[in-house]
Write a structure and sequence with these properties.
Blueprint (H helix, E strand, L loop, with lengths): L8 H14 L4 H34 L4 H51 L1 H7 L1 H43 L1 H10 L2 H36 L1 H6 L3 H53 L5 H43 L5 H9 L13 E9 L6 E9 L3 E7 L5 H8 L10 E3 L2 E2 L5 H6 L1 E4 L8 E2 H6 L7 H10 L3 H6 L7 E2 L8 H15 L3 E5 L7 H17 L1 E5 L11 E6 L2 E6 L1 H6 L3 H15 L1
Parallel strand pairs: 3-10, 3-11, 6-9, 9-10
Antiparallel strand pairs: 1-2, 1-4, 4-5, 7-8, 11-12
This protein binds adenosine-5'-triphosphate.
Length: 597
C-alpha cells in the first residue's frame, strides 16, 4: 500500500481549490444556506436593538405593556423567523454536502473503474474503501459546517461592527481589537493539528487495509491457528490509531478551551467597560444593553469556526487521498489521446468479428514476472482454452484482455481497430466474465443474475438459470428467485454460487464469454450439464476459458498453451498431444498426478 506524503502549503492550497471545485454541483444550495444564515444574523442584530429598546422603555421611560407592544410584536416575529431561517440554513447546507458527496463517490468510482483492479490491488482494498467511505463522509462537515462557518466568521462580525460603530465606537474598537486574537490562535495551533490529523488519517488507511485482509482471510487464519497472533497485531495497529486520534483530540480540546477562554475574556472585558461607563453615566442603558447583547454574538461565529476547524483538517486530509486517485495516470493516456483523435479508432461496431492481441508485454511493476511477446487472434465464435502450469501467465493474459491493465490496452484490437482506454468499456460491455470465485452480492438471486442485464424479463431469467443448470435448485427454495443471499453468496454452496454466476453471464448474451475454470467446484453430472451449455454457447459466440484440468479442453476449437509467460504452442487437443511439446508435458504431469493420487 502506498500512502500520500503530508501535503505542504502549496499542496494544501491546491487541495482547498479542489474541494472548492467539487462544491460546484451544490454551490447554489450552499450560497442559499449562507445567505439565510447571514440574514438570520441580521435579524438577531435587529432583535437585540428591539429588546434593548423595550427594556429601556419599560425601565427608564415607565412604559406599560400596551405601550411597548409595537416593539414586542416585531420581536416575536423575529424570533419565529430566526428559528425558521436557522433550520432551513442547516438543512440546505446538509443537502448541499450530500449532493457533493454523492457526486464525489460517483467520480471516484468512475476513475477507479478506469484504473482497473490492479490499481486497487497496489494501493490496498482497505485503504481505497476507506477513501470511498470515510474519506467522502469526512467531507460532510467540511461543506455542511466548516464552509458556512468560515463565511459567517467574516460576515457576521462585520455586520455587527457596522451597526456598533455608529452606536458606540468605543465598544466597536474593543470588538475590533480583540477579534483577531481568535483567528490568530487558530492559525497558531492549526499547523500542529494539521500534522497530527494527517498522521491519524494515514493510520486509519493502514488499519483499513489490515482489517480488510484479515477479515477476508479469516478462515485461513483460523485453520492455521494464527488468530491469536493476528489479534495482537490488530490490537497494536488499533492502539497506534487510538494514540493518533487522542493526539488530535488533545489539540482539538486544547484549542477549543483556549478559544472559549479568549472569547469569554473578550466578552467580559466588554461587559466590565460597559458596566463602568453605565455606572459613571457616560453611556445610556439602551446602547450599553445592545452592546452587551451583541458581544457574545460577535465572538460566536469565530468560536464556532474554531470548533469546525477540525472538519476542515479532516476534509483536506481526505481530499489528498481523493486527488491521488483522481490524478492517478491512466498508463495509456498518451495512446488514448493519439488513437481517439483519429476517426477510424472511434469504435462504431455492429459486431465483434475478431479480437487480436499484438506484441503484448506486461510485467508487474513490483516483480519481473508477467507475460511476454503475446500475439494472438481470436475468432468470433468457438471454444478457446488457455492452459499452462501454475504461474505460466494465464490469468495475466485474461486480465490484459479484460482491460484490467490499462497500460496495455493499445495492444488490443477489435476487427483490426486498435483500442484506447476510452474504448475499453465497449469491449468490457461485450464480455461476460466469470472469475474462479465469482462475486455475488447481498441481494436476491434474481437481482444477482440480472446484474448483467437489468432489463431482463422473467422468461430470460429462467432461461439463463436453466442454461446454467441452477433453475431446479432455485425452484426448490421457498422464495425462489426472490431468495435473499448474503454477501459473497453466503447460504449457497460453492457450486451453486458458480452456477448463479454462470446464469449471470448467460443472461448477458455477450458475444464474448470469459471463464476461469468454470466447472471446478461442480459434481460430474452438473459439470457435464454446464460443459454442454458452454459448448452450445460457443456455437454462436466466443468462449474463452482458463482450464486447469486438461480433460475439460478436449472439445476446444483451439488450445493456447502458456509457458513461462509466453505462448508456447497452440492447436487442437489431438495435434498438441501428439507433439512432444509443452502440452504433451502438461498431459504427462497430469497423468502422473492422477497415478500418484
Ligand atoms: N499481482 C502480481 N504482482 C506481481 N507478480 C504477479 C502478480 N500476479 C501474478 N504475478 C506473477 O506473474 C506470473 C504469471 O501469473 P499468473 O497469475 O498470470 O499465472 P497463472 O498461469 O494464471 O497461474 P495459476 O494457474 O496458478 O493461477 C507469475 O510468475 C506470478 O508470480
Amino acid at each position: 500500500m502506498t500512502t500520500n506524503p503530508r501535503p505542504d502549503r502549496a499542496q494544501q492550497q491546491s487541495l482547498r481549490a479542489f474541494l472548492k471545485r467539487q462544491s460546484k454541483p451544490a454551490a447554489v444550495w450552499l450560497k442559499l444556506s449562507i445567505a439565510l444564515g447571514t440574514f438570520n444574523a441580521l435579524l438577531m442584530i435587529a432583535g437585540a436593538y428591539l429588546l434593548a429598546q423595550t427594556i429601556h422603555n419599560v425601565m427608564f421611560e415607565g412604559n406599560n405593556l400596551a405601550q411597548v407592544t409595537h416593539l414586542l410584536w416585531p420581536l416575536a416575529g423575529i424570533i419565529l423567523l430566526r428559528a425558521v431561517f436557522l433550520a432551513l440554513s442547516e438543512r440546505l447546507s446538509a443537502y448541499a454536502a450530500l449532493k457533493i458527496k454523492s457526486a464525489m463517490r460517483q467520480t471516484l468510482l468512475n476513475k477507479l473503474s478506469l484504473l482497473g483492479p490492479s490499481y486497487i490491488e497496489q494501493h490496498g482494498q482497505g485503504a481505497t474503501l476507506n477513501t470511498l467511505h470515510n474519506g467522502v463522509e469526512a467531507l460532510h462537515d467540511y461543506y455542511a459546517k466548516y464552509l458556512p462557518g468560515a463565511a459567517y466568521s467574516a460576515l457576521i462580525p462585520l455586520a455587527i461592527l457596522v451597526v456598533i460603530f455608529p452606536t458606540d465606537y468605543k465598544a466597536g474598537l474593543i470588538f475590533l481589537l480583540t477579534a483577531p486574537l481568535i483567528p490568530f490562535f487558530m492559525i497558531l495551533v492549526g499547523s500542529k493539528a494539521e500534522a497530527l490529523n494527517q498522521k491519524r488519517w494515514k493510520q486509519l488507511a493502514v488499519l483499513g487495509n489490515y482489517f480488510f485482509d484479515r477479515v477476508q482471510g479469516l478462515t485461513q487464519l483460523k485453520l492455521f491457528n494464527a488468530t491469536r497472533t493476528e489479534l495482537k497485531q490488530i490490537a497494536k495497529i488499533s492502539d497506534d490509531f487510538r494514540h493518533a486520534t487522542l493526539d488530535v483530540l488533545k489539540i482539538a480540546f486544547l484549542s477549543s478551551f483556549a478559544l472559549e477562554f479568549l472569547a469569554t475574556i473578550s466578552v467580559a472585558l466588554v461587559a466590565v467597560i460597559i458596566g463602568f461607563r453605565l455606572f459613571f453615566g457616560t453611556l445610556d442603558f439602551a446602547t450599553g444593553f445592545v452592546v452587551l447583547l451583541l458581544a457574545p454574538e460577535f465572538y460566536l461565529p469565530l468560536r464556532q469556526l474554531g470548533s469546525h476547524y477540525h472538519a476542515r483538517l479532516q476534509g483536506i486530509s481526505a481530499a489528498a487521498d481523493m486527488v491521488a486517485i483522481l490524478n492517478a495516470p491512466l498508463p495509456s493516456d498518451e495512446n488514448a489521446s493519439v488513437t481517439t483523435s483519429s476517426p477510424e479508432n472511434n469504435l462504431t461496431l455492429n459486431a465483434i468479428n475478431s479480437i487480436s492481441i499484438t506484441d503484448l508485454n506486461f510485467i508487474y511493476p513490483d516483480s519481473n514476472e508477467g507475460i511476454k511477446n503475446i500475439n494472438l487472434t481470436l475468432p468470433n465464435k468457438g471454444l478457446i482454452a488457455v492452459v499452462g502450469s501454475s504461474g505460466s501467465g494465464k490469468s495475466t493474459l485474461f486480465d490484459c484482455l479484460l482491460g484490467f491493465h490499462p497500460e496495455v490496452i493499445n495492444h488490443l484490437s477489435i476487427n483490426e481497430q486498435s483500442l484506447s482506454t476510452t474504448d475499453i468499456t465497449y469491449l468490457q460491455n461485450n464480455i461476460a466474465w466469470i472469475p474462479q470465485k465469482a462475486t455475488l452480492f447481498y441481494d436476491t438471486i434474481a437481482a444477482n443474475i440480472k446484474l448483467a442485464k437489468p432489463t431482463a424479463t422473467q422468461q430470460e431469467l429462467e432461461h439463463a438459470a436453466k442454461q446454467a443448470g441452477v433453475l431446479e435448485f432455485i425452484n426448490t427454495l421457498p422464495d425462489g428467485f426472490n431468495t435473499l443471499i448474503g454477501e459473497q453468496g453466503e447460504g449457497l454452496s460453492g457450486g451453486q454460487k458458480q452456477r448463479i454466476a454462470l446464469a449471470r453471464a448467460f443472461i448477458k448474451q455477450a458475444p464474448v464469454l470469459v471463464l476461469d475454470e468454470p466447472t471446478a467446484h461442480l459434481d460430474s453430472q452438473t459439470e457435464q450439464l454446464i460443459q454442454d451449455a458452454i459448448n452450445e454457447y460457443a456455437k454462436n459466440n466466443l468462449v474463452l476459458v482458463i482450464a486447469h484440468r486438461l480433460n475439460t479442453v478436449k472439445h476446444a476449437s483451439n488450445i493456447i498453451v502458456m509457458h513461462d509467460g509466453k505462448i508456447a504452442e497452440q492447436g487442437h487437443f489431438e495435434t498438441l498431444a501428439a507433439q512432444n511439446g509443452a502440452f504433451a508435458n502438461l498431459l504427462k504431469t497430469a497423468k502422473q498426478g492422477v497415478a500418484h493420487a
